[in-house]
Design brief:
The protein folds into three domains: 54 residues, no CATH class; 77 residues, K homology (KH) domain (GMP Synthetase, Chain A, domain 3); 64 residues, R3H-like domain (Ribosomal Protein S8, Chain: A, domain 1), CATH 3.30.1370.50. The protein is 37% helix and 27% strand. The strands form three sheets. It has a three-stranded antiparallel β-sheet, covered by helices on one side. Strands 4-5-6 form a three-stranded mixed β-sheet, with helices on one face. A three-stranded antiparallel β-sheet has the order 7-9-8. The termini are far apart. 19% of the residues are buried.
């Protein structure tokens, strides 16, 4: 539920300013409802009435993604903490907790599916695309490190035995890591074959 506060001041502008300070945000991130306009009364003394406003934080993409994950985890009976980092171009959701390995799935397939669904929710009716990343216990970085090591090890085998090596099917994110890892390699090059979801990376001699 969006956070909302009410503020009273001599003018609507002052009341809004006080609310924005308390919420620690800018005016473009809130909805403003004027409850009382306020007035100075007769001669600025008699019948003086204060202005009152209700200021509500707009729901962000991160809020929507957090709510989606919380509902999924509730159905799965998982107790997990969700930390959200958001800027203009991306939303990163870091999940932590006990016994949450099930969220990752085989080679990250469950995690990728949740990330895809969260992306659909966040980007619905948006004019510009916002990238979504969901990570569990730093799995993404660990997986990337593993793939980089794998790419370099297989590249050495290709050079040694002078035979192409075709990797197992990977999602676009993981294939990109393999390509990136070997793009500056003097001896081998990479390309992809097949159709999703069975698209694979091939490593061959240059």
């Amino acid at each position: 539920m969006a956070k909302s506060i009410e503020k009273t001041a001599k003018t609507v502008q002052e009341a809004v300013h006080a609310a924005l300070e308390e919420l620690r945000t800018a005016e473009e991130n809130v909805d403003i409802e004027v409850i009382e306009e306020g007035n100075k009364g007769i001669f600025g003394i008699i019948g003086n009435k204060m202005a009152r406003v209700r200021v509500t934080l707009k729901e962000t993409g991160g809020d929507k993604a957090r709510m989606f994950l919380a509902q999924v985890f509730d159905k799965m009976k998982l107790n997990a903490d969700i930390d959200v980092e958001e800027d203009e171009n991306s939303v990163v959701l870091k999940v932590s907790g006990k016994d949450i390995g099930i969220i990752i799935g085989r080679r990250g397939e469950t995690l990728d599916s949740l990330q895809y669904l969260a992306s659909l929710i966040i980007n619905k009716n948006r004019e510009s695309y916002k990238r979504v990343v969901i990570d569990v216990e730093n799995y993404r970085q660990k997986r990337e490190d593993t793939l980089v090591k794998l790419a370099n090890r297989l590249a050495e085998r290709v050079v040694k035995y002078k035979k192409n090596i075709t990797l197992e099917p990977m999602n676009p994110y993981e294939r990109r890591i393999i390509h990136s890892s070997l793009q500056n390699n003097k001896y081998v090059e990479t390309y992809s074959i097949g159709d999703e979801p069975n698209r694979k990376v091939v490593i061959r001699l240059r």
